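Annotators were shown the component list below and the corresponding predicted structure, then asked to write short factual statements about the assembly.
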Amino acid sequence: GAVVSQHPSWVICKSGTSVKIECRSLDFQATTMFWYRQFPKQSLMLMATSNEGSKATYEQGVEKDKFLINHASLTLSTLTVTSAHPEDSSFYICSAGVPGLYGYTFGSGTRLTVV
Amino acid sequence: DAKTTQPTSMDCAEGRAANLPCNHSTISGNEYVYWYRQIHSQGPQYIIHGLKNNETNEMASLIITEDRKSSTLILPHATLRDTAVYYCIAGQNFVFGPGTRLSVLP
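Structure shown to annotators:
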């Protein structure tokens, strides 16, 4: 079955630094990738939709200059949290797939802690 | 994307069928219904999806009403490991609602 690898699974960084999270589709090509964040006891909140070769579409209220998304190939998308602050601490999850085909496969998530 | 409505929580006895409903009354004709579940601190796991016909796989069955305004996910013989939050999604943009927290009880 389809596998999505997300790396790192957890990261601790200092306030003011940047962190990059990778999302790879291992055995299929994904034209679309979604990025979510999830706070404890809450549902997944869609941050942005990333289509290969084009700029990401951000949801309302998500700062595109703070959460940089790159989807340069059909198997890799990255999310960079720039100038991280403690309030950015969260569980970040990606998913990858092809619209209308078999649904989307999710990564195992990245727990970011900013200290 | 169609807005979905699910019960906040449900209990089910181990070994019995778990029937999880989802309302998606504003769904468009070409929008699929997807079901995922999430176990604590993991990424969501795909369960099943469908357009208008009922679907079955090794994990579950999906019953979609004829008017496509609602659907039911059926776990035929629930086990303790099925305890999770179950999400119903209708449409392409994959926006998650609050989901249903299913507790399978021994």
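Statements collected:
1. Chain A has a mean pLDDT of 93.
2. Chain A touches chain B through 23 residues (CB under 8 Å).
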